Protein 1
Amino acid sequence: MSNEVTMARTSTAREGITLASQVRRATLVLATAAMLGALALPWLSASYATTLAIEIMIAGIFASGINLLLGGTGLVSLGQGMFLGLGGYGVGIGSTVLGLPLWLSVPMTLVVVAVLAAGIGAVCTRTRGVEFLLITLAFSQLFFGAAIKLRLTNGSDGMSGIPRPDLTFLGLNGDNPVVFYYYVLIVTILVAAAMWRIVESPFGSILAAIRESERRAAAMGYAVSSYKVGAFIIAAVTCAVAGILQSQYTYFINPDSMSWQLSGEGVLMVIIGGTTSIVGPLVGAAVFVLAKQGLSILTTEYMMFFGIFFMLVVAFFRNGVVEALKSALWSKP
Amino acid sequence: MQVFLTQVLNGLQLSMLMYLLAAGLTLIFGLMNILNLAHGAFFTLGAYCGVVVAGSTGSFWLALLVGPLLPLLLGVVLQSMVLQPLAERGRSTHLDLALLTFGLLFATAGAVEWVFGSAFLSIPTPVALSGHVNLLGISYPVYRLFIIGVGLAVAVGLTFVFDRTLLGATLRAGVDNRAMVAALGVNINALFAVVFGLGAALAGLAGVIAAPLTSVYSQMGITIVVETFVVVVVGGLGNLRGSFYASLIVGMTNAMSQAYLPEVEMFAIYALLIGVMIVRPQGLFRNVERVA
């Protein structure tokens, strides 16, 4: 945001227009390149890259859900892991305990998550700032405890045997990493497109208004609390989608997916990528997963460097990698 | 009845341990508005310092004295050299600084694991405090009574400092109106650093005295910090006296649910927190606090 302001101040209107079109063209080129790369990836490189890409996309969907609250509405939640876990457990219970097919258990899970999120969101959005952060954390710890204690969810061992989609009617095998990769890729594109539609819609504009000044939005006659609950529900469902994919990817779900560390990692992904764009959370997820992988290859003590890395990101790249790249590429002296 | 009494004492002991952590956390929040997720890191560091000192000198008492020093130093450095400059450069104290301390929490856990490995360590209970004592018909470990004593002593000491000294008056004024205190010529940054350091030292002290009871491992601080947040919120953010009562409530809830309702043990305190935030989002004890 501040970059745009300084840009407008330092350059003349004309330069601004050419700059804007340059940016747009470059973004288009980059997006096309990324898309082609994503499509071609399984042929270009070894299966390791494919699994990494799957992890990045799942983390990216999770971060997108968080960003609708954080970047879109200005609400910092430290409890989105609970919806990731609920998504995974929903499919786990639906498929393994109730024996339902995926086409039934997935929509049911999403509906249940939406209903739960409506209730939880109604409570949480009464608070703001640090209180919002803490109450979302408390709710996620509540579900974390329930997942460990309940017999239905098999305690801290978690549930295994979560099925991947059955694609035999297309002549494909969902257990094949490449097939699963394209399945996740399609879902990621759909989620990103939906996020873009939401943020660009009047609904998204009102969320932005709430982020900038809740009082003014209320004074203009918008039912601020309903909009916040709405954003909370959409974010929860998005995180649940990531949880469903995650549990299908590993055939497994355990309480760790609801831990507050995981919620914090999601927030950090959003901060790394930047909150101002739809691709930010995806880029943040990519940096996060690659850094984690790279560090754990280089050293067994990755957690220390991981922590230091995040402190540096928060201290020096607050606006995110995407904004930093933009200003590095197109900044004028 | 005897089982119940033991549970009450256990709850009291847990409460006092939580209070040592919560006191620093709530003051840091009340004064600087920083949600210090790294508070658990100071707990871990204190415990490991204690293990090293007790291991090399064989003296628990020296460990108790030296253990909080490293957290104290780190707390002062962190606040005055990292958090304060960032806050002055316009970083959001709620989000950015909380995330930075989140990173620090993990960096510390990783660093500790790097140096000490992932083994579970412990400090042997000092001879003078080992053994049991007969109390109201039950036999209770002396060391746990010692923890209760330390907690109460710290509570009395902090209350005295807070209510009766110049530092305390400045602190209360700072919680009320930071800008006004700065305008009156108080070096508010130095005050912040001192409070941050003292809070960290208290967390380190908690780490040392917890070490003979629980195992010392690299992620011990990560688990306890969330429970400490429950205490701080139930007591009212920034409310020292409130966090004392709240640590009693939370510690007792925890101990009682562990003993009598193990099914709800993992989430009883979080249900309590949610209840408090719905009914009294400002904390249970906001009105108890005397506003100077």
Protein 2
Amino acid sequence: MENDRPIFLQIAELLENAILDGSLPEETQVPSTNELAAFHRINPATAAKGVNQLVDDGTLYKRRGIGMFVSPGAREKLRTRRREEFADQYVNPLVTEARKLGISATDLKKMIDAAKERS
Amino acid sequence: MIPAIAVDNLTKRYGKFTALENVNLTLNEHRIYGLLGRNGAGKTTLMRILTAQEFATSGSVAVFGKAPYENEAVLSRVCFIKESQVYPQHLRVRHALGAAALVYPNWDERFARSLLEDFQLPADRLVKKLSRGMLSALGIIIGLASRAPLTFFDEPYLGLDAVARQLFYDRLLTDFSEHPRTVVLSTHLIDEVSALIEHVLLIDRGRIVLDDEVEAVRGQLLTVSGASRAVDEFAAAGTELHRTTLNGTARVTLRGAFVPADHDRARSLGLRVEAESLQELVVRLTASPRRPADAETAGDSPEKEILR
Amino acid sequence: MSRVLAVVRMQLLNWPINIAWPWGILFSSFLINYAIQSALVRQTVGESTTGGLLSIYTVVFVAYLISVSQDLPFALGLGVSRRTFHLASGLMLTTEALLYGTLLYLFALIERATDGFGVELAFFGLPFMSTSNPLLQILVYTVPFLLFGVLGFAVGLVFKRWGANGVLTLSVAAILAIGAAVYLITRAERWRAVGGWFVDQSTVGLFIGWPLLLVVPLAALSHLLIRRVTV
């Protein structure tokens, strides 16, 4: 858990990441609040807040008496949103740092291509 | 809904010394509160008054809606694990647990026994022969197994090693999840518990200086470093608490309602961003030799260190 | 009431210690007196009375003093009210007093039946403490326990609230009061009358009546003192 932002957001992010990388497929059940709290060693109310955040934005839905499930289409929606955030989170700082180091746009593109080759 | 604790303009004086001054608090049920502050700030005094072990000079306190003094309907629902609890001379561990079992209606004997094993506390040992850590473990076991609707833990970790402390946090969390109650945890080890507690109450020299959700406070303290101009541009977004400069670079600690987007902005300005922990925030709020109230009005002249 | 009983049970958790002290000391005192008396019996004529019985009463005084200093903070720490602790202590003291008083009476009977345990020892049955009625006799042994216990409790509370200084002040005040009384009696040359008064008091009056009369204000004082005790 990191210092820079509320834990409930970090919980929401962790669940989103799991949905994005496929380890939490659509229509599967998400761990309960108490399970999440015990696993991450955080307050259950905080875990609940993180889960509720995802319920509010439609990523998860509640099945009464059973638990929280991943909504159909959640993966696509998340992907789209993250792509929008990608520019602010990664591209802009990358460009600023590159400028500081005097790396031209051409060189930058070469670096990106090389990285993609490797992965 | 009746709050678990309601403190109204509480003041406590010992002769010339003011231990608590105009404290106002409301604590709601079924949450874990962190009661933080330096030694002598007034944390224990507050808890002692809330459990009728000490008397207020002025103001009032209500626990579950009623004054706790000589009120056993209230007191039987409260468990106060003090750092300095007195145990009668010839009492053994099992007697201490037996005593708690007699006075706490929700006492869970099985839970107590499993905790005894967890902490490896010998049931037949004389309490006065226990090491500091074992004494703390005894207090923790009583506090947890009491299942008292309001449980105070006053620095319960003294003498406990990191493994035992983590055991305490884990057991507390698990039990809290399954049997919700109101917990007030007073501690110096803020970073260890910052994920556990929901709400932080910070006392400094008898006054409340912070009373907020941990999640709201988390991320409020940021340290950015880099080119002075970029730092200054970003620093306008918050209150400057500390500044160090070296040649053309600056390192500034800021307090403000920062969100992740602000971090991104700082990074795109070429700055290095470090989020400070809750402990750091607490230290900043309680380290000043001036009273917190004065600091607010004095225009916050930040300490400036010029290194050359 | 159930809460008071719970606190009594709490006090009894370590009952071996509670019983061991008073009777252990009494037994030691008895052994010493028995040994001395068995050495002396051929030399003296008639019964030899000893003050060894006072030991068990003194222990009860000390026990209740210590109880305030240790058991009270422990109980308050566990959420017991001061009033409940006071009542529980009173209940325990009364029960102990009756139990111990009866036991002492029985030992006195054995002593009489065995001619002072074969050495003409008068440890349990003291002439100035005897009365004809068995029930009253038990009370003669019992009531002083109440007095010593309540006194110990009250002094314990003084110590709890005002510390060693408080107890010292109290002792000095008591000594001064006694000193003043002695002075006045001497001045008025009334020692004969004072002595006569004591002799005139019946055993019942001396060991039941007057102590009970003192127990009441002491208990009331304890009630007032305990209300403001902090731990």
